[in-house]
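FORM 12-B: Structure-to-Sequence Request
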């Protein structure tokens, strides 16, 4: 029997007792690039007030000083190729975030600008992506599924933005190509 992933959220009632505050099926509608994503929870600041709803703002990648929790599915290359799956440059991008990624299933390759090495992430693997210029590539025959917590971050002199023309995402709006 197939299991459709669900989101469960806990909370507190007016008496301060623990409750199941929300439950829903994950929304994995496919956007134009073929990658399925469901923003599960968005927080506008840290530390988080326990009663913050975590309501999702459509189109918002992450909050300044906050975080975003997402469920992501990359389809198999054999079924559907996306802009992220056409090396060498089409999928290169960078964000001003630290991304905490846990692979759920499948296999997803990640490569970094300026290196020839690709790392294959498999079920149970963890990647901490710290604002580097990178790309994703699903070479397999199965979807690659991962969860990611996207945390707003600040660049330093040791972590400058790339000048290579990689796509750069900004807080509060969709990614755009830098020229």
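FORM 12-B RESPONSE
SEQUENCE OUT:
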């Amino acid at each position: 029997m197939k299991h459709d992933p669900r989101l469960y959220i806990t909370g507190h009632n007016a008496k301060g007792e623990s409750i199941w505050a929300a439950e829903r099926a994950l929304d994995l509608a496919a956007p134009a690039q073929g990658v399925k994503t469901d923003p599960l929870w968005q927080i506008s600041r840290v530390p988080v007030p326990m009663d913050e709803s975590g309501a999702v703002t459509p189109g918002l990648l992450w909050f300044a000083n906050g975080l975003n929790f997402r469920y992501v599915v990359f389809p198999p290359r054999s079924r559907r190729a996306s802009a992220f799956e056409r090396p060498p440059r089409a999928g290169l991008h960078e964000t001003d975030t630290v991304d905490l990624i846990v692979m759920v299933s499948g296999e997803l390759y990640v490569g970094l600008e300026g290196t020839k090495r690709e790392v294959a992430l498999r079920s149970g693997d963890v990647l901490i992506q710290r604002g580097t210029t990178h790309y994703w590539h699903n070479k397999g025959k199965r979807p690659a599924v991962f969860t990611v917590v996207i945390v707003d971050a600040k660049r330093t002199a040791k972590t400058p933005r790339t000048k290579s023309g990689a796509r750069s995402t900004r807080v509060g709006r969709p990614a755009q190509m830098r020229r």
